[in-house]
Amino acid sequence: MAKDERVQVSWPTIGFESRPWTSGGDVVASRRALRAARGDYRAAVPPMIARVPVILSPDALAAADDASRELTRFDGEAGLVTAPFASILLRTESASSSEVENLTSSAKQVALAEIGESRSGNARLVLANVRAMKAALILSDRIDESAIIEMHEALLSDSAPHIIGRWRDEQVWIGGGSVSPHSATFVPPHHDRVQELMTDLVGFAERADVPVLALAAITHAQFETIHPFPDGNGRTGRALLQAMLRSGGVTRNATVPVSAGLLHDLDGYFRSLDAYRAGNPDAIVMAVAEAAFAAINNGRRLVADIRSASERWNGVVVARSDSSVHKLKEYLIGQPVVNVKTVAAALAVSEIAAAGSITRLEETGILTRTSGDARNRLWQATEILDALDAFAARARRARA
């Protein structure tokens, strides 16, 4: 038997079962669609994996080891740049994870949403994903069922509060339209199986006999297969991936934007999930490892751009070392769109002092007034916004 066949046989494949389907009486669709929605449908039956031996190919193990080492190295580099840089990486990971779900927003709109000034619905959803990522990192010391539900709550508490706080109690499906699951691309397990599967998933995530990145990748793939929530599974699943990297000690200082790496090859990412369900865990481990390499390369360019801007700012600003102007420069790296109120609150100074610091940086060209009336003017650090948008553009270019 060939080596790759032996690896595939070692991991259980998903099964399927027939389930009866009853369409709601208020469904509006064509006669053809309604006819297609009659009768039983097939839902996935994922295997229990908590105690299944994890046997990966030498190539997958080597890729996971190399990626883990590079993630830890980059995490250390990011920790030395500047304190607000961690928030930049968190935001880029959240934006990239949202973009996997076709939720796109510019860096400026996300920064505006952070201070309650954006009218973009997508920007507010990205900001919700930032909250989910933060929750994931906070909860990384206890990855259990309640922690996963809390990550999901942080993501959807504003936009879909009616579905948070519990596992789903309805059938969901991917692709094939909204009428029924009969023509779906993939139908996750029936909701009466979700509780048992999630208990098993948490048991798998706690294992110490699997390399951290491989453990995180397989947990992510199983989570996406279970699809335990009515919505937000992709973003919650990638937050869970970050939590496991933090829990396993691969990262400590920053959220390496692995989702930006996944954007390099979305089709490959989705194929790796299909391969995992067919019994090949190598595929998702390799996909996450390659995403990590891509994210690090892109992230290092972002670090260089931010560092270049920061050095230029230091060369044009002359002020006492304890001046709030210097504090504002550092704050702008993590929050590149500001108004007087947000600066005053962030720096713990009066609004008069905040306005004075803003004026100093506006005079040097670091800040540019963008919009807002006389009572609520807005300023932006264009160099930081450009660096963030360039990061996102590189991820998209690689995918095209």
Automatic annotation (TrEMBL):
The keyword Protein biosynthesis does not apply. Residues 143-290 form the Fido domain. It comes from the Bacteria. Keywords: ATP-binding, Nucleotide-binding. PROSITE patterns: FIDO. InterPro entries: Fic/DOC_N (IPR025758), Fido (IPR003812), Fido-like_dom_sf (IPR036597), Fido_containing (IPR040198). GO terms for molecular function: ATP binding. The active site is at H227. It holds the Pfam family Fic_N. ATP binds at D231, G232, N233, G234, R235, T236, G237, R238. This is Fic family protein. It comes from Leifsonia tongyongensis.
